[in-house]
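Q: How would the structure tokens look for this protein?
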Amino acid sequence: MEEAAAAPAMRAPKRHRSDYQQVPPGGGGSGGGEGLDDLDLISGLPDAVLGTIVSLLPTKDGARTQVLSRRWLPLWRSHMAPLNLVADRHLSDNQSRAAVVSKILSDHPGPARRFSLHIISLRGFRAKVPTWFRSDTLNGLQELEVTNLHNKRYPLPRRSLTRFAPTLRLLKLGSCYRLRVLGIAVPSFPHLKQLILYKVCISEKSLECLISSCVALESVSLQSVGFSRLCISSQTLRCINLHALRSKGGELVIEDAPCLERLLPDFPKDGPPTIRVISAPKLEILGFLSKGISTLDLGTMVFQKMVAVSLTTKMQTMKVLSLNIGANLDYVVDFLKCFPCLEKLYVILHDGKDINSMWKHEPLDSIECLELHLKKVVLKNYKRSFIDFAKFFILNAKVLKEMEIRDLSRESEKSMCYQLRELQVEYRASRDAQIVLRSDTIARPTNYGHTYDLSMADPFDSPFCGCDKCVTYI
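A: Here is the predicted structure in token form.
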């Protein structure tokens, strides 16, 4: 009897997870003797953590987590998982999309993290939009994206921006060149960090006021937005991205931007033709620059059609530069002289009447970045006629770590090896440099759909991902 009474005390202790949290009931699988590898460790996380995971998933996937187990069933419809609603072609077909959006907004109690709406031309869809914007589920909305795919003018509901302004962190109005915000007074966005305008009709005065009044703004992306003269002043702005601007004779002036790190005119041949930087003491990433910029004024450094006309000072902060100016070595060397601390250089090569691939001027000892700082060079659209251009960096960049030469010709591996020998890699100035010649699949700069993404340390240092953002630029 004594042994029987002592038996319960001798049972094995309850198993605990490695982080000292008790395994939840049913979290260990079907049997009582399973190993730690069979445990459902994710379901043991706190509700707040699981809710964050659900909120970051695509809309369909987030809703499907309800069928995983009783543990996950209530999460998607709870305040622990702020709604991430993306109403596009991935959510449902066009015929049923309005009903699906209405159902989700009625089922989820809120708050909402993100609402991304693609407005389509089906009858009755647009009529529901104002009702959706008034839904209590969207309380506390942090990210608002409105994309008008309708071929007729569509006014953004007048009060929607004002309602969401106190909590928005991202505002994107895109693919909707008939979307009008001219009649709406510019509200205050105290927490807005990212502003993306794509084919939006907005006055210069309203845009300047919007940018300067956002006290937390970090990134502005203007795509197919027209202006004649835009002056930007912001104490918090870190990135300005410009793409295919509808500007004839337009001018961009950076008057006062003490935190600006990136100035990215992706395809400046579409505008603005004049860029003046008056005050941006932390600017370190610049590009893509091309001859589409008739005047580039960086303080006392002035370039006209990418030709240096005044180089009285140097910009010590510049670390990354991307050029789309062909294979003219004179132009490139002028930029190297302006930016003595440059660490990465991207050059998009192409044929033209002013090709100059050989250096025939003064010695290069005065170019500080070649001596001390330039560690990476990437050449796109390379062909054999540009061999002297590539050799210039191989033979003169003394601290080079990596050189990537991308060739569109799709030549054989044997031909690639022969070209490497022609480049005289064995005589490279930096013995640590890795010289790589590889085939490329796209002639334009890669990753241009994400250049305004501040989470990327180098916006030019990623391959073409093929996502919707990048494909729209091709």
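The radius of gyration is 28 Å.

Residues 97-107 form the longest helix (11 residues).

Upvote if useful.
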